[in-house]
Every structure is written in structure tokens, then in C-alpha cells.
Amino acid sequence: MKASTRRNLGLAVIPLLIATMFLQAAIDPSVREINKGQKTAFQGLSGEFVLGPLLGLQQAVAGLLWVRADEFFHSGDYDAILPIVRMVTWLDPHQLDVYITGAWHLAYNFTDSSERSDRRYIPASQRLLEEGDANNPEIYDIAFELGWQNSDKIKDFARAEYWYRKASTRHGADERGQAKAPVPMFVWHQLAHSLARLGRLEESVDIWKKALAMSEDFVKKNPTDFSRRNVRGSEVHNLELTQKRIFSRYKHELDWEVDAKVGKGVNRETGEPLSRDTFVFVTGSEVSQKQSAYAKAGLSAPAMAVGAPRPPAIEPTWNTAFDARPLFTAPKVLEVKGRFNVGDGARVTVRLHDDSYRTAQLKEFTFDINQDQTLMLDQHSVRAGTFGRKIDMSKDPKMYSFKSNIYYLVFEFNPRATSPFIQDRFGWSGEGMADPKYLWTDSSLQPEVRWIRKVYRITREQVFGGSIPESAVVSNEEYARVMAEPGPAK
Amino acid sequence: MVTLAIAKQTLEDMLRRKILLVLLIIAVGMIALGPSVGFLSPRESSAVLRSLGLAVILLAGLLITILSGIQVIPTEIERRTIYTVLSKPVQRYEFVLGKFLGGIFTVFVMIAAMGLVFLLVLAWQEKRFDPEMLKGVVLTFFQMTLLGALAIFFSTFATPVVNFFLSFGLFIVGNLSSVTDSLISNKNPATRIMASAVHYIIPNFGNFNLQNKLIHPSVEISNANVFIVQNIVYAVIYSAVLLLLAILVFDKREV
Q: Residues B131-154, buried b or exposed e (16+ Cβ, 10 A)?
């Protein structure tokens, strides 16, 4: 080859290389769009799984890792699953089940030796789901899971409503992963339930009506879809039950046994049962019983007679006569005895936490929780007007390190989180509850909610074995004020 | 014409190699078995099948390209057949281009066979033909074209073993485009310069990975067709650069 040809060929390389650089700059935005949500290949990966992603096989490696996680799940090795969850969601941020299962492990499966959840992981669980939702903004699944976790585990019904509402605006993924199908009806059902839990009853009824209209329309077009017919049946049941409960609790109390026998439904506009038999006084003794209940509560009774509608179920208010007495019988062993005049099946929440504990607001997902923090939450069922049991925290020093000097020990009852048959007496927001000592109204929520809550401020010495005097009780207002303050910087 | 004659002879020679045929049979078998592993992720069996198919095509294509690319020129030198060729009116650049084209035809035949089986299996499984997946197969071919040019370039001066590690190593580095792209905005100026150099100078194999979009149709990119054309042009221009360099090196080499 001639020297001049060689030189010309050499020179031709330069503009061509420059052209590739410009092309690269033009390609980069599209590559970023394709890899949106994916972390770079090196982050957090163990050696054995590095090669695949480097060859551009993220999704295939993610699939294999998830199979491995499934093996750990069946062997009960939950600790091993979480790092894999993290890797899979980095490699392939569109595997919805991985986010959902990982978040479930975090929120539910880390427990102490008595099966009490380690609630310090809940913010991490929520953050993982939020990350998954951001990476899959068209699809309802993860938003729904956030709603469910807030409703079932955290009992934050406002957050639950927020996420269910978001989920209801999304789509379901078809078999190819494309967001096309309408969201399943259970998303609407849960939205209605969460609104009822918030005491926003008209909105809840509206959602049930909307869901029912959607199902009616669907069944008209698909008359042989028996599955959807069943869904429609459950919507009719829930709509009518919600309306009956509103009627019973706030207008005229229903006799549920009679209602079960008569069962003629309700007027869907007013909520009034179609049979008057369900909500009128039948005998004189019923009338006098109710009159004496008013007298016992120190209230003047309204005019009542046989054949006339009963007053609302939340009237007269019911004295819950709540009290709880804690005692550390041994270091980190708490024994609780309490009384609560609500009826069997209600549950009292017992919570013990550092004075500086605040629910973490994570901007980035992390498994690293503050191991020095102590947070214990237990639920005690009420039986024959009493509750209580022994809570042994001495066996789980990793969960209950007790590094702080001051703790809050809280006993509380949230009427919005309790069973419907308990709410039938108190209303959704505790309107029918009375208590001479521990009734507290939370006006930060609208409609406001009436809690039963008793709070002790105790010391580390008391946790390690000592009686807790009643002088350690602090007011609900003070506890609410302290918890509203930001926690100390970490 | 000379170039095409050499390419044809190289293709025939390659297709006679048992190792490449064994690789092809294994890959086709794995793709055909794809539907049977869909149970691993019940809700996303389609995603498993797609990711497995594309992964097998990529891995098999990678091995076929490197194994053929690193050997074409050194084998001719080792067997001394190159003397016979170059003693005829054949220019050295024609020899290099012919070897490259022969290798690329081989890769094309192999990827086309795997791609065809993959598309048929997918169509059978999903009860419809998805032309989108063809884009993934096409991009994999152009990714391999670029890798083939790189291997040919190294084969003009390196032994097959050294060439294997150089080509494979640069393929891995070139797949780190998302890492280097994120490092370009790093606060440290030295890191920025290094990342920019790697990102813009080394062949960027990560560009061709369209799998995330193909496996998850919900992933949107502004203009997928422009993106594919850009990548094809990138592969062609960069391959031309590497072939020019290969011609220049081989022209000076004593054989």
C-alpha cells in the first residue's frame, strides 16, 4: 500500500471516531430511558452475579436470582431473601412481585421470639414499595400493596386511602406486562373500606355505588361472566351493609338479629332498612332498658315508645371505664393488667418506645435500621372486660436494646381500627365512647376521632425491674405534642 | 469480487467448524425449551421467555463472534495458507475485509437461525407474532458486528488467547455504558475525564441492549426506531474505524 494511501486512511479514522462520539451523545438519552429505574451493574452485586449484568443480561440474572430467593423462602431463611430482593429490583425494576414480596417480608416476617413484628423495618418496607411504584407508574399493583400495608399493618387509613385512590387511577398489566386492563374491582372495594375507616362515610357509600355501577355495566355486556356476577353480589351486600350501619349507628339502632331474619335490603338513598321491624322498639322492657341507660350516663332520654324508632346506637355514650397497670416483674419483662368495658373482641394496643423514636421518613431504600432504637408493639384482646399478659423482651436484645434513658409506654384503643361489631356500639370515630380519665380527641384528623389512651413516661431503671407509679402517667396532649416534635438528628 | 470470494470461503470454513455448530444447537435447544421454564414466574412467564430467548441469542452470538473473530487471521498465518493467498493478486486490505465479512456472514447465519426459532417459539407461546422482538435480534447482530470488527482488529497483531481476553474485556467494559454515563456527572474532575474517555472512545456495546424495553413493554422510549437506526449507524461507523486500523496494522505486518 502506498504511503499516501496509508496516511489518508489514517486521517479518515479521526472524523469517523468523532462521528461515533456525536452519535453516542445522541444515543445516550434513549439508553437512559430504557434503563430508567435500573441501578448500574456494579451496585450491591455479589461476585457470582456480576458477570451476567456486565454482558447485558440483567433481566435473565434477575429471574435466576428470584428463583434462588424462592428456595430461601421455602427453607424459612428470610434474612437471605432481602439482599436478593434488592439485587433483583436493581437489575429489573419491573418485577412487581419482587417488590411486593420483599416489602411483605420486611413488614411482617421479622419478629421477636413471641412473633411480634419488628416495626422498625416498616419504613424500609414502605420505601421499597414506593420505589417500585415510581418505577412502574402505570400499573396498579404496588400502589395497591402500599394501600393494603397501610391499612392492614400500620393502621394509617389516610395513607391507605391515598394509595388505593392512586391504584384506582392505574391499569392492570396484561400477560405481556403492558398496562392495559382496568384495575380489578377489589381496588375500589378497598378504597371504600379505607374511607369508611376514616369516618368519611358518604364518600365510602359513593365508591360502593360507583363500583356497583361498573359491575352492573360489565355484567350487562358479559351476562355469562359468573365471576363478575359474584363480585356484583358482594358490592350490593357491602353497599347495603354500610348504609345499614350508618343508619343504625347515627339514626336509629338496628336489631341485627331481626335484620338477619327479615333481610329486605335498604333504601339506597336514605339508608333506611326496607323493613321497619329492624329498627323500632318491640316491647316495653326494651324501652325502659334504654331509658335507664340514659339515666346511668347522666343524660336526659328522648321520647321513646313501643313501635317508635330506637335512638341511634351511639346514644347514650358508653363508659368504657378504661385502665391499664404495667409492672416490670423482671428486667425487660413487662406484665400488663387492665380493664376495658367494651365487649369481647376489642383489642388494646400496647406500645413501648424510646422517647426519641419517630417513624423514619426514608428518601432512599435501606436495610440499615437504627439497631439502638427500641420499639415494641403488642395487641391485647379484651375478654370479659379485662386484658393483659406478660411481654418478655429480654430474649430479643437485638430488637429491644433499651439504650435510651426515657421511654413512653402507651395503652390505646383506636375505634377506627376495631371490628365492625364493636364499632356498632361506638360509631366509626368513637362518638359513642365515654371515659372519665383517658378519652382523647384527635382533632388533627377530619372528621375527628376519639381515642382511649393512657401514656406512661418511664425510665430505663424502671424497665430493668421496678414498679411504675401512677405519677409517671402523662397527659394525652403532652404525648401528642412530644410526638409531633421532630426526633433528634441521627 | 476478491473480497467476496474470501468472505465466501471464510463462511464455508466457519460453517464446517463443529464447535460453532454445537454452540448453535445448544442455543436453539435452550430457546426451544424456554416455555417450560415460564412456571418460574407465573405472572410473568412471558417476560421469562423473552429474557431467556434474548439472553441465549446474545450469549451464543458473543461466543460465536469471538471464537470466529480471534482465529480467522492467526489460523491462516499458522497454517501458512496466507502465503498462497497473498502471492496471488490479492491486496492485504481485501484479505482483511474478506475475513471480516466472512466472519460476519457466519454470525448472521447463526443469529438468524436462533432468532427465527425464538420468534417461532414466542409466537407459538403467545399465539401471535411480535415484530418488536425482531428489533432485539437485529440489534444483537449489529452489536456482534462491532465486536467482530474489534476481534479482527486485534487479530492483526495479537495471538488468539490475548485477542480473546482483549475482545471479551472490552465487550464487558463497553457494556458499562450506564455506569460511565452516570460517572460523567461525577463531582471529581479526574473521574469525569476518565468516564468520558471510556464512554465516548471505547466501543459502547451497552447501547444495543434493548432487552428492558422488549421484555417490559411498559418501558417507553421517545423514538425507538430512531434509536435503532442510530445504533446501526454507530455499529457501521465504528466497525469501519476498526477495519481501517486493522488494514493499516496488517499492511505493515510481516507475514
A: eebebbbbbbbbbbbbbbbbbbbb
For chain A, domain boundaries:
47-246, 252-311, 318-484
Residue A11 forms contact with B (CB below 8 Å): no
Report the half-sphere exposure of A152 (CA within 13 A, side-chain side): 12
ipTM of the complex: 0.82
Q: Spell out, as residue ranges, where chain A has pLDDT lower than 50.
A: 40-48, 489-490
Distance between CA atoms of residues A232 and A229, nearest Å: 5
Task: Compute the distance between CA of residue A264 and CA of residue A483 in angstroms, rounded to an integer.
Answer: 48
Burial track A436-446 (b if 16+ CB lie within 10 A, e otherwise): eebbbebeeee
Please list every residue in chain B whose beta carbon sits closer than 8 Å to the beta carbon of residue A4.
none
Contact A375, A430 (CB under 8 A): no
By the 10 Å C-beta count (0-12 exposed, 13-18 middle, 19+ buried), B196 is classed as middle
Question: Could you tell me which chain B residue has the CA closest to the CA of A63?
Answer: B48
d(CA A278, CA A376): 44
Q: Which residue has the cell 340514659?
A: A294
pLDDT tens readout for residues A285-323: 999 999 999 998 888 888 899 999 999 999 999 999 999
What's the gap in Å between the CA of B213 and the closest CA on chain A? Answer: 6
CA distance A305 to A96: 59
Whether chain A has a CB inside 8 Å of the CB on B214: the answer is no
Strand partners of residue A182: A171
Domain locations in chain B? 2-252
Q: What grid cell was written down for A437?
A: 380519665
- Please check whether residue A18 touches B, CB under 8 A: no
Model confidence pLDDT, tens digit, residues A240-273: 999 999 999 999 999 999 998 887 789 988 889 9
Enumerate the β-bridge partners of residue A138. none
First to last CA, chain B: 23
* Optimal mutation site among A6, A9, A17, A23, interface B, most CBs of chain B within 10 A: A23
Q: Is A190 exposed, middle or buried (0-12, 13-18, 19+ CB in 10 A)?
A: buried
Rounded to whole angstroms, the Cα distance separating A9 from A325 reads 92
| CB–CB contacts below 8 A, A to B | 167
- Rounded CA-CA distance A43/A154 in Å is 31
User: Which residues of chain B make contact with A178, given a CB cutoff of 8 A?
Assistant: 217-218
Residue range A26-56, pLDDT digits in tens: 898 888 887 776 554 444 444 445 555 555 6
The Cα–Cα gap between A237 and B101 comes to 72
Distance of CA A80 to the CA centre of its chain: 25
Q: Does B40 sit within 8 Å of A57, measured CB to CB?
A: no
Check CB contact under 8 Å for B55 and A59.
Answer: yes
List phi, psi (to 5°) of A319. Answer: -75, 115
pTM score of the predicted model: 0.72
Q: Looking at the complex, report in whole angstroms how far the Cα of residue A6 sits from the nearest Cα belonging to chain B.
A: 7
How far apart (Å, rounded) are the C-alpha atoms in residues A191 and A157? 10
Given an 8 Å threshold on Cβ–Cβ distance, is B218 in contact with A24? no
Burial of residue A109, with CB atoms counted within 10 A of its CB: 0-12 exposed, 13-18 middle, 19 or more buried:
middle
- φ/ψ (deg, to 5) at B132: -55, -35
Cell matching residue A386: 379485662
Q: What is the CATH code for A47-246?
A: 1.25.40.10
Query: 3-state class of A412 per DSSP?
Result: strand
Residues in chain B closer than 8 A to A57 (CB atoms): 51, 55, 58-59, 211
Kindly list the residues from chain B whose CB atom is less than 8 angstroms away from the CB atom of residue A35: 178, 212
Print burial letters for A172-187: b (CB count within 10 Å at least 16), e (below 16): bbeebbebeeebebbb
